[in-house]
Task: inverse folding
């Protein structure tokens, strides 16, 4: 009797295994594949690939770098959002962010910038490229993080009442250069020396007189979480219209019309932010207004 019960239980388990294998291993995948082939879904299921002259040139879901082999901006193209995915950016096999956060203010070395200095340098470079004010809060005019190490005895609340030494930790100045700030609390500000550790001081970011709303938008100077974002904000797109129009020898209004054709609002009216797809936009520009030597 016991053996009979044991056999029935195992036969029931085997039947359940077979049924679930058919449902989850065959029926469900086939159903998902069939739905993905429906009109309007097939393109997305295939990776939203973009073809030109029978050749795949990209995907509308993955950003690309529009620079030359040396990393110099190609002025005839709209520039994408910065990417930290892979050594050259936008690498689908190395999707990810830099993992640097708001506390990353002090450069490890002149060639190892903190997030703040990276943002400041990008903003300065974009300002120069687009002919706008690239300054932003907590950045020096030279494009590094405006952070002081204030060294001296501390009060109970951690503040340094009378500094013995003040160092601009992200400015590795030459002999002929001066820090962005001459004095702080009556003490002369010094440049940082490579290899020195100033962590014993209190780190004080200096806001400066940059506007509260910088001309260069945030998405132009910060990388996305995936590093593959093909979109930029309408504000960043607007900033680039004049440069692209000049490079392609057409009017800004003509370029703006193409930008609007590749602009999208919030999904379902409330998900995400308005955006412009840079990959689609640049490909369309090459078709409509190619650069002629």
Result:
């Amino acid at each position: 009797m016991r053996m009979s019960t044991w056999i029935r239980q195992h036969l029931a388990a085997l039947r359940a295994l077979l049924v679930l294998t058919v449902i989850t291993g065959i029926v469900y995948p086939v159903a998902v594949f069939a739905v993905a082939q429906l009109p309007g879904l097939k393109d997305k299921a295939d990776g939203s690939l973009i073809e030109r002259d029978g050749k795949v040139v990209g995907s509308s879901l993955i950003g690309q770098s529009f620079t030359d082999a040396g990393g110099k901006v190609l002025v005839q193209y709209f520039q994408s959002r910065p990417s930290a995915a892979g050594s050259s950016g936008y690498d689908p096999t190395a999707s990810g962010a830099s993992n640097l956060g708001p506390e990353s203010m002090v450069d490890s070395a002149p060639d190892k910038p903190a997030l703040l200095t990276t943002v400041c340098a990008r903003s300065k470079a974009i300002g120069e490229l687009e002919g706008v004010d690239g300054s932003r809060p907590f950045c020096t005019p030279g494009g590094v993080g405006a952070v002081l190490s204030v060294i001296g005895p501390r009060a109970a609340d951690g503040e340094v009442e009378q500094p013995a030494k003040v160092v601009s930790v992200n400015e590795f100045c030459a002999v002929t250069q001066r820090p962005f700030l001459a004095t702080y609390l009556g003490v002369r500000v010094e440049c940082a020396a490579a290899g020195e550790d100033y962590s014993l001081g209190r780190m004080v970011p200096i806001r400066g007189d940059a506007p509260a709303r910088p001309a260069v938008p945030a998405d132009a100077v910060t990388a996305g979480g995936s590093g593959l974002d093909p979109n930029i904000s309408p504000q960043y797109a607007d900033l680039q219209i004049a440069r692209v129009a000049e490079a392609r020898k057409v009017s800004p209004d003509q370029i703006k019309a193409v930008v609007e054709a590749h602009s999208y609002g919030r999904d379902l009216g409330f998900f995400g932010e308005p955006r412009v797809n840079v990959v689609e936009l640049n490909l369309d520009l090459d078709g409509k207004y190619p650069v002629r030597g």
Observations:
- The two ends are 92 Å apart (CA to CA).
- The chain has six helices and ten strands.
- The beta strands are 49-52, 55-59, 147-151, 165-168, 183-184, 187-191, 202-205, 231-232, 263-264, 275-277.
